Amino acid sequence: MFMSVVTLIGNWGIRTRPR
What we know:
It contains one helix and no strands. With 19 residues, the chain is mainly alpha-helical.
């Protein structure tokens, strides 16, 4: 469950980054 949240946040951060 925790891993899912971490993955979601990580993916969102990468997507938000203009790179």
